[in-house]
Write a structure and sequence with these properties.
354 residues; mainly beta; Neuraminidase; five-stranded mixed β-sheet; four-stranded antiparallel β-sheet; binds calcium ion
Amino acid sequence: MRAMKVLAAVALLLMAGCSTAIIPEKVTAIELTGNYNTPDGMVVDREGNILLSCPNSNDPTPGAFILKIDKDDAVSEVVKLPEHPVTKKPCGPLGIDVGPDGNLYVADNQWFTVAGNAAFPDKHQSRLLRVVMKGGKAEKVEVLVTGFIMANAVACHGDSVYVTESKFSTDPTPPMRSGVLRFKLSELDPARPIALKPNGEDPHVCARMKTENMDWVGANGAGFGADGTLYVCNFGDAKLEAFTFNAEGKVASHRMVARLNGMKCCDGLKVCPKTGAVYIADFLGNAVHKVCPKTGAVTTIARNGNTTGRRGRLDRPSEPCVRGNKLYVANIDLPLAGNRYDAPHTITVIELGE
Ligand SMILES: [Ca+2]
Ligand SMILES: [Ca+2]
């Protein structure tokens, strides 16, 4: 009994320690207003603007958008994305990257629409889209790949675009299988979209992961280091994993960089172009972390309890983005894990001081 009490006290202390707020010295917020209520994926374009996916999952009434955050943090609209032809619901833009052709590659995640919805027995409704850009303006939106369950991060590297599939099947038996698919830009043709084979059997799968925790999802954020290492977040198991590929594009090495150590999950990630550090949004921990890719050391940059997002507080963050010495963190504010979806709808902006 006494041992039980001691254990309970230790557990409480540990829990309290894990949830200690860490508020950065210099932190502000960009507030999204009007048609924009739920931010997610981000990338810095060639002109230094941040392109932001705005799936509006919390209030889909206005549709879904790609937005631009310019150098002065002013927000404007790049394009409103078309609704999905089968679900008739708005596009679900999550991961976004700029290709070597200057066009935008965007994951359309329809999982939130089809999960648990008997009207859509085929759960493979998510897609890879291309926003064709001309003179800085969106010209048209093309469908390149169909048949994902949960298309998530997008990363362009070399002659290819890489997309994480957060689960290969809806089989509830652990472990959950997920991974990364690689498409050569030259094989992408909107006149003949690639229809993926289900269950992780498609030949475009280039990296595979397993997740023991079945409560959430597997492969999530992804990005490349300067040396060509592909970093992938394993959401449910709170792991950062790393893959290298040989000349034939096959996996040459697969290692775990970091696990837990203050992280409750690993959602979106970005590799800092200057330092090589991997920044990770921790949706469940309401935190953002920096991971050293060499040692696996985890440094928590910011963490707080459930909030509205006011004064730059984190409000269920899903994706980080480094621009200069600032870390931008999209607060997806989904009503999960005790959080309430609420105004303001924010991007937290943290000065890194490095
Ligand atoms: Ca909020
Ligand atoms: Ca909230």
